Amino acid sequence: MGQKNIVIVGAGVAGLTTALLLSREGRYNIVVAAKHMPGDYDIEYASPWAGGNYMPVGAAGSKPAEYEKNTWAPLEDLARNRPEAGVHFQECHIYSRTKDANSATADWFNELLSPKAWFKDVVPDFRQLPQSSLSPDIKSATAFTSVCINTAIYLPWLVSQCLENGVVFKRATFSHINDAASSSLHKGRQVHLVVNCTGLGASKLGGVQDSTVVPARGQIVIVRNVAPNMLATSGTDDGSDEALYVMTRAAGGGTILGGCYQKGNSDPQVDPNLAVRIMKRAVETFPALTGGKGIEALDVIRHGVGLRPVREGGTRIEKERINGVWVVHNYGAGGAGYQNSYGCAQAAVRLVDEALGPSARL
Fold first, then answer.
1. CA-closest candidate to residue 261, choices 144, 98, 103
2. Hey, which bits of the chain come out as E strands?
3. Helix (H, G, I), strand (E, B) or coil at 205
4. Any stretches that span the bilayer, and where are they (predicted)?
């Protein structure tokens, strides 16, 4: 029957990973059409700003946990065998503070904080840290081998892999999802299916207009100082929408200091007071970052603000016909975009194959 023509809308980690997996099948002509591409830095484009690590938060037995579980092996393979992808192993410590036992943040991090988390049998070296090694305010802590992704290398690497497999990239904006089915994107040929990886854009895109998708603002400081390991805590003393996480990116990508989780806030401007709090929290937890000299010894590369595409019901992986056009959705991963990227893309690919299989009505 010949190859089917697909347009993927969105070139963040969801769109690029889906494009890569589809391109490996060899039976689709794929165009990735997006307003923003790797190399761009824009408040609308979440993927470049992400810390890009693996800290599973999906509850045991849930779809998010399944996506995260299915993403570990591909990321581990990249860290082990493909240094050019910008993914490296890093020991991760997760601290549960006594004072956060009943906080909303602790609830959201419940699985990550658990000494019996489902991913203990997935990631290497999962273990509890001895109580004697912890400060008095820490109730418990776990450690495991994680990965950290240098997004400035990884996103272009995904593009390069797609290009090797014949994927075409085009700048485009759409007011309605059906606009992506225009034959002009495929040199006048019929578009058989559209994959919607628009992230926050899904809330406004005609034909989708998913009102359950909202921004969760994140702010980070990227520094040249190197952290001894990756770290996250169950909360901070600076409010329930602020967080402490630290990770050093591969290949000289700097160290990410974060952060916050401000749901419903889409302010693109850096909050200088929040930046100071972020740096103070990091230095107090990791004195080695500055040799005990305080935040004035942090060597700042830049400050960043990104908007996580949070969806109330979790990532949407579904297929439907919209005005006669097959659409497969893969959006709304919130802050878990990288750590569930392959799992979500695998699920989306299965739906594409179902829609465009031999028995599908075109």
1. 103
2. 4-9, 28-34, 87-97, 127-128, 138-149, 168-171, 193-196, 213-223, 230-233, 242-248, 255-260, 262-263, 300-311, 316-322, 325-331
3. coil
4. 6-23
Nearest to 96 by CA among 133, 134, 138, 126: 138
Can you tell me the distance from the alpha carbon of 233 to that of 98, in angstroms, rounded to the nearest whole number? 11
If we measure between CA atoms, which residue out of 153, 92, 150 comes closest to residue 123? 92
Return the CATH fold of 4-48+152-212+312-356.
Rossmann fold (3.40.50)
Residue with tokens 């892999």: 161
Rounded-to-integer distance, Cα 110 and Cα 115, Å: 10
Quick: pLDDT tens for 297-336: 999 999 999 999 999 999 999 999 999 999 999 999 999 9
How many helices (H) and strands (E) the chain has is answered by 7, 15
Return the CATH number of 89-149+214-311, one of 3.30.9.10, 3.30.1780.10, 3.40.109.40, 3.40.190.10. 3.30.9.10
| pLDDT 10s digits, 179-228 | 999 989 998 999 999 999 999 999 999 999 999 999 999 999 999 999 99
- Cα–Cα nearest to 196, from 212, 211, 174: 174
Does the pTM surpass 0.70? The reply is yes
Find out whether the peptide bond into 259 is cis, omega within 30 degrees of 0.
yes
**Residue 229 burial (C-beta neighbours within 10 Å; 0-12, 13-18, 19+):** middle
